[in-house]
Amino acid sequence: MTATMMTTDASSSRTSGRSLHLNKVGKRFGTATALDDVTLSVEPGTFLVMLGPSGSGKTTLLRGLAGIERFDTGAVRFGSTVIDDGRTHVPTERRGLAMVFQDYALWPHLTVRQNVAYALKRHHLDRHEAARRVLDTLDRVGISAKADAYPQELSGGQQQRVALARAIVGSPALLLFDEPLSNLDADLREHLRVEIATITRESGATAVYITHDQAEAFALADVVGVLRDGRLEQLGAPESIYTRPATPFVARFTGLAGAFAGTVVGRFDVGTVAVGVGDHRLAAGIPADAVLDTGDDVDVLIRGAALRLDEPAADAATGTSGGGVPGRVTDVAYRGRGYEHVVATAHGALSGIFAPQAWSRGTECRVVIDPAGCFAFPRRVPSTI
Ligand SMILES: Nc1ncnc2c1ncn2[C@@H]1O[C@H](COP(=O)(O)OP(=O)(O)OP(=O)(O)O)[C@@H](O)[C@H]1O
């Protein structure tokens, strides 16, 4: 990828983002399906994060939106303009977009100021106006002190700030981010994540950001799309994906404490079933379209946030009084604000159980489970979740 391809003519879209619509987008590479019937729509100015493991199609989607790659099937509309379908393929430089890459992709022979100014070339601005906008933008991303440095004289975090400045200086309507934080260390990642979130929202652009990091996705996004093997498994606000995962894959990929095998023993309420796990009864949510009957085998997937440690039940051997599942602490890790524990139970291990005080290894305990963080999915044999 050359730097010339990273910013495109945004002169017609200086003020705001536009809605983005993908309709049945597909892409194959030989026999590999990279994208399979992906359909989604987001409002103007939405920060969309596409989340998925390696090989799920994130890069292919981003490159298709950028116009670097052409989709095989389906259509992409940006605002009222079709930018890609069977007949139309608007070239990258006419899509009004800018892209930020994982490896920064700055011109090594240009200074910071010149790298950013380069992105304004197509705007045909007056020299002074262009210089002012470049400096304003460098100020916004906190790198103006390095305006005359060359990229190789900067740290990774500083280079990514320059790349961000170069992306936003032309006020594009669409900003594309290709895992921009993955080469940075933890502290810097968090810092720059906040700045990307703030600066992008201030710019008003619609953003599409790809990552395999669930925490990053949830922290950044207005809307998250979860990709698996080229298919969109769920699209929604981070909160709805966390509290109502549509599939076992989405639940697992967005963070689980553990899973228990159980059997449906009844219904509690609309959307909630009672599941027998050994001698215990758990309440668990079920996906909107799921049909589960008494006697069906299920996997109960459990979020860490749903778990709380308590003293063992009065009848600790069965755990039948006081609710919760008896267990023994097998690991405790200090996390600054408190401690995360791993607890072994008769039905499997539960990890990431937070408590403000440490429960030491070997302590008998009871894990109290909030039904809001339990999801029952039909068991697959053999299990593929
Ligand atoms: N140029 C290509 N030639 C052949 N197969 C490709 C090509 N690009 C992608 N693929 C295949 O398409 C699928 C999706 O790849 P893609 O790079 O889009 O996934 P990804 O989610 O971005 O993965 P990663 O996080 O590892 O970059 C994979 O199976 C990949 O091997």
From TrEMBL:
<dbReference type="InterPro" id="IPR017871">
    <property type="entry name" value="ABC_transporter-like_CS"/>
</dbReference>
<feature type="domain" description="ABC transporter">
    <location>
        <begin position="20"/>
        <end position="254"/>
    </location>
</feature>
<keyword id="KW-1003">Cell membrane</keyword>
<keyword id="KW-0813">Transport</keyword>
<dbReference type="InterPro" id="IPR050093">
    <property type="entry name" value="ABC_SmlMolc_Importer"/>
</dbReference>
<keyword id="KW-0547">Nucleotide-binding</keyword>
<dbReference type="InterPro" id="IPR015853">
    <property type="entry name" value="ABC_transpr_FbpC"/>
</dbReference>
<keyword id="KW-0406">Ion transport</keyword>
<dbReference type="InterPro" id="IPR013611">
    <property type="entry name" value="Transp-assoc_OB_typ2"/>
</dbReference>
<dbReference type="Pfam" id="PF08402">
    <property type="entry name" value="TOBE_2"/>
</dbReference>
<keyword id="KW-0408">Iron</keyword>
<dbReference type="InterPro" id="IPR027417">
    <property type="entry name" value="P-loop_NTPase"/>
</dbReference>
<dbReference type="InterPro" id="IPR003593">
    <property type="entry name" value="AAA+_ATPase"/>
</dbReference>
<dbReference type="GO" id="GO:0005524">
    <property type="term" value="F:ATP binding"/>
</dbReference>
<dbReference type="Pfam" id="PF00005">
    <property type="entry name" value="ABC_tran"/>
</dbReference>
<dbReference type="InterPro" id="IPR003439">
    <property type="entry name" value="ABC_transporter-like_ATP-bd"/>
</dbReference>
<protein>
    <submittedName>
        <fullName>ABC transporter ATP-binding protein</fullName>
    </submittedName>
</protein>
<keyword id="KW-0410">Iron transport</keyword>
<keyword id="KW-0472">Membrane</keyword>
<keyword id="KW-0067">ATP-binding</keyword>
